[in-house]
Amino acid sequence: MNEITKNAQAVEKKVTQQLLSVGQQRLDLEIIVVTKSVSGEETEEIARLGYRHLAENRPEGLKEKQKLLSGYPITWHYIGSLQRRKVKQVVNSIDYLHSLDRLSLAEEIEKRAEKEIKCFLQINITGEETKSGLKPEEISSFLNDIASFQKIKVVGLMTMAPKDANEKTVRHAFHMLKQLRDETREKSIPNAPCTELSMGMSQDYLIAIEEGATFVRIGSAFFTNY
Ligand SMILES: *Cc1c(COP(=O)(O)O)cnc(C)c1O
To answer: Could you identify the atom of ligand 1 that is nearest to the CA of residue 98?
Structure first.
């Protein structure tokens, strides 16, 4: 058995156990495999194992992997900061954007997209200065600003836990994001159903699952000796 298959089995085992412990099923969670740091060959191995949600963080990487995997029915996710001038390169070849965090980006998507794009608002929960993302108190006015946009559907909220934080801090951040998701969902905004939670990476996906993640974004745990 190759390394990636072994890693995937280990991830699946942990994910399934954790879901069970919170009374959920494997179908309640989507694992997005983050392929930004690996070769086309490794990405194809993941597709062969049956994974259908993949994420890239650069237009070039996205293009390369899409070409290679054109024979697979992949749902493509774009993660990480997206420059306004690069929107036109990617917006019509992705299904989900996880990093909507400012009005100028939303405007460019609205202008360039040929179909509705499922977006997560990226939230900077802990207010770290160096981190991108809307602050929690900005969510409401941001959604107001984009309420008439036809091409943007805010499907949920996304966050990254603070780097090297302890479990308690990570859990708190994820818990806060869920609360914000719930508050936003309750507003029943037509282009912001906000039912989903994109949180959890290799370091903290088990905590994220406990806190209600519906999408986890996992890279290293699939491809390295994690
Ligand atoms: C790289 C990346 C991931 C995956 O990180 P791992 O630690 O490799 O699992 C998830 N989300 C975002 C936004 C990333 O940039």
So the answer is: 13
Question: What is the phi/psi pair of residue 213, to 5°?
Answer: -55, 145
Report the Cα 93 to chain-centroid distance in Å: 16
Atom of ligand 1 nearest to the CA of 99: 13
Q: 3-state class of 47 per DSSP?
A: helix
Choosing from 201, 207, 216, 225 the residue with most ligand 1 atoms within 8 A of its CB, the one to mutate for a pocket test is 201
Can you tell me which residue has the tokens 């699939």? 222
- Which residues make beta-bridge pairs with 32? 217
Model's pTM, two decimal places?
A: 0.97
- Kindly report, residue by residue over 195-222, the tens digit of the pLDDT: 999 999 999 999 999 999 999 999 999 9
Assigned token pair, 158: 């996304």
**In this structure, are residues 7 and 38 in contact, taking their beta carbons and an 8 Å threshold?**
no
Identity (one letter) of the amino acid at 19?
A: L
